[in-house]
Amino acid sequence: MGDFNAKVGRQEPSTTSFTVGLYGLEETNEASEQLEDFYLEHEMALANTMFKQHPRRLYTWTSPDGNTRNQIDYISIVQKWKTSLMNCRIYPGADCDTDHQLLVATVKVRLAKRQRQHSIQPLNLEELREEKAVQFAAEVSSRFMALEAAHDEVTPEDLWKGTKTVLLKVAREMIGSVKSQKKKKWISDNTYTVIREKREAKGKDKNRYQELKAEVQ
């Protein structure tokens, strides 16, 4: 990531650069050269200059007074993945509490399927206390003695496998596994309600909007 504040403009069809597309905003500045050099060096492209959009879908920043609009935020993608881009545009109606607009790229990538591995339930170690801990130690010691009697000479690998098997088997028998718990939502339903109220107040009641913004935060 980088804060270049670069305005790259648009590429002319006759140029050979693959960094900037044909559909950026026309205005450029000096910082654009640094940004383009960086992307050329790393073989990357600016996604939101690759798709023809209405100008209001291109500018990513609006000045506080609303009079100046620029395209200074970009989504970049490595050249070899550029054909995976389906679209890239801003959503001016999104309520993001900032003078920057929400910029979204749609990407379609085909990935190889992976076999899903079965997750191992963690042991309920909270139960391994006081009397149960003493019982666990005695049972493990007893089984280790039986393991040693069965094998006079073992390799380090065999010794490790036997030790691991004994420890896990006794633990599961005596303390069991932790039952999986459903994760709590990180945003409550009440917060979502206030977010909707804040969105409705935007542009209508500035004081109410600021109050709701503070409550959401």
What is the distance, rounded to the nearest whole angstrom, between the alpha carbons of the first and last residues? 25 Å
What is the share of helical residues?
Answer: 25-40%
- Following the backbone from N to C, one meets helices and strands in this order, namely HEEEEEEHHHH
Mean pLDDT across every amino acid position: 84
Helix and strand content put the structural class at alpha+beta
Query: In order across it, which strands form the biggest sheet?
Result: 1-4
Beta fraction of the residues? 5-15%
Q: How can the largest sheet be summarized?
A: 2 strands, antiparallel
Give the strand tally: 6
Supply Rg.
Answer: 30 Å
Pick out the low-confidence regions.
none
Bulk shape: elongated
Number of helices: 5
Question: Can you characterise this structure?
Answer:
This protein is of the alpha+beta class. Among the domains are: 31-107, no CATH class; 125-174, no CATH class. It has helices at residues 31-41, 130-150, 156-174, 189-201, 206-216, and strands at residues 44-46, 61-62, 69-70, 76-78, 85-91, 102-107. The chain is elongated and about 85 Å long. It starts with 30 loop residues before the first helix and ends with a helix.
Q: What can be said about this structure in brief?
A:
The protein is α+β, with helices and mostly antiparallel strands and 217 residues long. It has five helices and six strands, in the order αββββββαααα.
Task: Set out the fold topology.
Blueprint: H1 31-41, E1 44-46, E2 61-62, E3 69-70, E4 76-78, E5 85-91, E6 102-107, H2 130-150, H3 156-174, H4 189-201, H5 206-216
Antiparallel strand pairs: 1-4, 2-3, 5-6
Helix pairs in contact: 2-3, 4-5
